[in-house]
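Q: Predict the assembly, please.
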Amino acid sequence: MTDRLSTTLSALADPTRRGILAQLARGEATVGELAEPYDMSLAAVSKHLKVLEHAGLITRGREAQWRPCRLKAAPMAEVADWVGEYRRFWEQSLDRLEDYLAELQKGDPGGTKN
Amino acid sequence: MTDRLSTTLSALADPTRRGILAQLARGEATVGELAEPYDMSLAAVSKHLKVLEHAGLITRGREAQWRPCRLKAAPMAEVADWVGEYRRFWEQSLDRLEDYLAELQKGDPGGTKN
DNA sequence: TCGTTATTCAACCACTCGGTTGACAGGCAT
DNA sequence: ATGCCTGTCAACCGAGTGGTTGAATAACGA
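A: Predicted assembly structure:
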């Protein structure tokens, strides 16, 4: 699992870490501030931060005894690119769903006229 | 880790599984066909397919002794939506990078004139 | 210098993951 | 019926994950 996209995706595949990113999207924060919403030890949050840092999703500075974290969304661009390759597949199925619903609205029972 | 977005992301956070999805994007395939590019047992691929199915990323039919798989990209839409929320963050940093490079090109050493 | 605050480190635990192997089951074809 | 494909299941293994606790580090405040 050494490729970067896998590292990014697995870093994102955890609700706590996504919560941390959401919090950082509202601005820089210290470890303690980031940990506050969660019912887990500071050490656990520190580990999550290490995962995010390793994935390049955050950077950590040092200000006195605090280690403020900042969001670095760059790796997400790769995720967006990758998933974008599949857009036509899900849009196509949504289209089919919409068509189906439209047929229902028009009162065409079953929509099997072809 | 019961939420759907986490399930989807962790299913995608494996290069073998992403490879399988890429193959399915080119059309329906059987387990054997999907396994062929990989240097691992059929059982291992079967497990990967179970993960993908559980994440709703594929469906499996049954035709005689074959179990053909089809891509179902719908869950990826949620990923695209989520990551899209952060677009401005990475675009902003790319902009800053571009600005910085532009400054370098213009021969403004350091770009610290403000 | 001593205590407090903020954070990390190290060891440990239960659990999950990605892989293996061997046995098994469903559906052809002879 | 027998055997051959195709695929899954079950048990196992080593490595990784997400959490805990307690000790260690670092910087400030008195």
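Residues 107-114 of chain B have pLDDT under 50 and may be disordered. Residues 14, 16, 40-41, 43-44, 47-48, 51, 62, 64-66 of chain B lie near DNA strand C (CB under 10 Å from a C1').
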